[in-house]
Design goal:
Strand content: 5-15%
Order of helices and strands: HHEEHHEHHEEHHHHHH
Strand order of the largest sheet: 2-1-5-4-3
Number of strands: 5
CATH superfamily of the largest domain: Transcription factor LuxR-like, autoinducer-binding domain
Helix content: 40-55%
GO molecular function: DNA binding
Organism: Peteryoungia ipomoeae
CATH topology of the largest domain: Beta-Lactamase
Shape: globular
InterPro entries: Sig_transdc_resp-reg_C-effctor (IPR016032), TF_LuxR_autoind-bd_dom (IPR005143), TF_LuxR_autoind-bd_dom_sf (IPR036693), Tscrpt_reg_LuxR_C (IPR000792), WH-like_DNA-bd_sf (IPR036388)
Keywords: DNA-binding, Transcription, Transcription regulation
CATH class of the largest domain: Alpha Beta
Radius of gyration: 20 Å
Number of helices: 12
Protein name: LuxR family transcriptional regulator
Number of domains: 2
Distance between the termini: 35 Å
Structural class: alpha+beta
Largest sheet: 5 strands, antiparallel
C-alpha cells in the first residue's frame, strides 16, 4: 500500500471545514486501502443508546440491528480487548486473547455472523484521552494486511478523525470536557476517578493516604466546579463530559 494516502489525510483533515468534508476524505482513504466498512465511535456513557455513539460509519445492511439484537457488544472480543489495548490491533488477534474464555463459543458465533455479512477481517484503533479510552476507529471487510508503519499511521488517523468529528458533531462535549479538565487539579481527578468507581470517602482516603476530611474537601471542590447537586450528580456529569470512562 501507499502510505502517502495516510499522510495526505493527516494533512487535509485539519483543513476540512465541515464534518461532511472530513468524512469524504476519510472514506477516500479507506477505499484506497480496500476497507469497505468502518465506524468512528464514541465510548458509551451511562444510559446512551449504541446508535448514538456512531459519529460516522458505513456497515453492511442489517448488521447493526443483528449486533444489537443479539447483544454481541457484551462478548465482542474486539471491544473487550480494546479496553486494555494502547495501540491498534487486528480483529482476529483479539479472539486469540480469549482462547479460554467461557464465552468463547458465542464469540465464534458472532464472528461467523460477521463473515456472512461481509465483515471477514479488520482492525480497530483506540483513541485515548487523559481520563482513559474515549472511542475508536474500526475498519473492515475483506482481509487487508497492514505493515507496522501503516498500523502506526492508522493510529494517528483514528485520533485525528475522532477529535475532528467530535469538534464538528459534539462541540458541547468537546468544549465542556476541555474547559473542566483544565480547571481540575491532578488530585481532584484522582478523587473523581475513584468516586466514579464507587469508592467511599473512607476507601479513597486510605488509597491516597489522606484524611477523610481532605477527601470531602476535594469532593466539595469538584462538585462546585461541575455545578453538581450531589455526588451522584457529579458522577453522572463526569461520564457525560468524558472526564471519566
Amino acid at each position: 500500500m501507499n502510505i502517502n494516502h495516510l499522510l495526505h489525510f493527516l494533512v487535509v483533515a485539519d483543513e476540512c471545514r465541515t464534518a461532511a468534508e472530513l468524512i469524504q476524505e476519510l472514506e477516500k482513504l479507506l477505499r484506497a486501502y480496500g476497507f469497505d466498512y468502518y465506524g468512528v465511535v464514541r465510548q458509551p456513557k451511562p444510559n446512551e443508546t449504541p446508535m448514538n455513539l456512531l459519529m460516522s460509519g458505513r456497515w453492511p445492511e442489517g448488521w447493526p440491528q443483528l449486533y444489537i439484537s443479539k447483544k454481541y457488544v457484551l462478548i465482542d472480543p474486539t471491544i473487550r480487548h480494546l479496553g486494555q489495548a494502547q495501540m491498534g490491533f487486528r480483529w482476529r488477534d483479539a479472539l486469540i486473547a480469549f482462547r479460554s474464555d467461557p464465552h468463547r463459543k458465542r464469540m465464534e458465533r458472532m464472528l461467523a455472523d460477521s463473515v456472512r455479512y461481509g465483515l471477514v477481517d479488520g482492525y480497530i484503533f483506540p483513541v485515548h484521552g487523559r481520563t482513559g479510552l474515549l472511542g475508536n476507529l474500526t475498519v473492515g471487510g475483506k482481509p487487508v494486511d497492514l505493515s507496522p508503519s501503516e498500523m502506526s499511521l492508522f493510529d494517528a488517523v483514528a485520533k485525528k478523525a475522532y477529535w475532528r468529528l467530535l469538534e464538528f458533531k459534539h462541540p458541547d462535549l468537546l468544549a465542556a470536557s476541555q474547559k473542566i479538565e483544565a480547571r481540575m487539579t491532578r488530585r481532584e481527578m484522582e478523587v473523581l476517578n475513584y468516586l466514579a468507581d464507587g469508592l467511599t470517602s473512607n476507601e479513597i482516603s486510605k488509597i491516597l493516604q489522606i484524611s477523610n476530611h481532605t477527601v470531602d474537601w476535594y469532593m466539595n471542590g469538584i462538585q462546585d466546579k461541575l455545578n453538581a447537586k450531589n455526588r451522584q450528580h457529579v458522577v453522572a456529569l463526569s461520564f457525560r463530559l468524558g472526564l471519566v470512562t
